[in-house]
Amino acid sequence: MKPILILFSLLILIGCNKKPPTSQDLNSPVASQSSKKQLIDLSHAFSDETIYWVTAKEFDLDTVFQGETDKGYYYAANNFSTAEHGGTHIDAPIHFSKNGQTVDEIPLDNLIGEAIKIDVSAKALNNPDYQISIEDLINWEKKEHIQIPKGSIILLQTGFSKYYPDKVKYLGTDKRGEDAVKLLHFPGLSSEAAEWLIQNRNIHAIGIDTPSIDYGQSQYFKSHVILLSQNIPAFENLTNLEQVPAKEFKIIALPMKIKGGSGTPLRIVAVLNN
Ligand SMILES: [Zn+2]
Fold it and tell me: What are residue 90's DSSP bridge partners?
């Protein structure tokens, strides 16, 4: 065979060897690198360790069936029950605002979009009654050399998720019931800072890595009232916030679509641009 024919035959052989990509190829590190996206799960799993408000019904998973059926196939199914407000969840505006949106009415625009993160963990981890201040918000803007961008989803990192699910460290108490409410100690957003955000910036949603957007010792839940009255939903009991940057990432936060619901468990994910 002449050299040019050998080369030609080789090219045909190489060409025939090309196969369409398998699903394994698509999941390979090369494929995820080329998409230049990194996904961070900001949700706690639901289990019998899930932390609820001290007066709320806790998560319950009941086995309906698990095992080999008499027809020879395997089958598993459970029932679950839960309060709306526990674990990683959303507060729909109606939670603290009579005419606010119910969870099924929250526009997707408030749940999916550009996000920023404000890290106050250096202060909050030293003070379980810490309230995030207007100054903390302004300091973020100075450090990042931008205003909080219009339509942002704001995540507040207190560092408290590292205590989850230890109730004493995370909530301030492992007691339950009405009398335990006054024993709650964890950081939150001050009502002044909530008001400042509404008056001076345009935000689509807010989230925090503690059980509530108001701090544990709050009696009137003013930050809830201020934000939810403006149809700004709140995401609570978030985790992994230390893995997201201060800006230039997206949030996808999809709650179960309960008609008329005041809140519901939430799967929330950060999408990072590498
Ligand atoms: Zn809630």
Answer: 235, 264
Residues facing 188 on adjacent strands: 131
CA 37 – ligand 1 centroid, Å: 30
Provide the β-strand partners of residue 263. Answer: 91
Q: How far is the CA of 200 from the centre of ligand 1 (A)?
A: 25
Side chain identity at 165, as an amino acid letter?
P
Query: Cα separations (Å) of 34 from 24, 29, 30, 272?
Result: 15, 9, 6, 14
CA of 92 to the centre of ligand 1 (A): 8
pTM (two decimals)? 0.86
Rounded CA gap, 198 and 258, in Å? Answer: 27
- The C-alpha atoms of residue 152 and residue 142 are separated, in whole angstroms, by 17
Label each residue of 229-248 as H, E or C.
HCCCCEEECCCCHHHCCCCC
**C-alpha radius of gyration, the chain, whole number:** 24
Q: Ligand 1 centroid to 13 CA: how many Å? A: 62
Judged on CB neighbours under 10 Å (0-12, 13-18, 19+), 174 is: middle
Alpha carbons 119 and 242: distance in angstroms, whole number = 8
pLDDT along the chain (274 residues), means of 10: 47 44 46 70 98 97 98 98 98 97 98 98 98 98 98 98 98 97 98 98 98 98 98 98 98 98 98 90
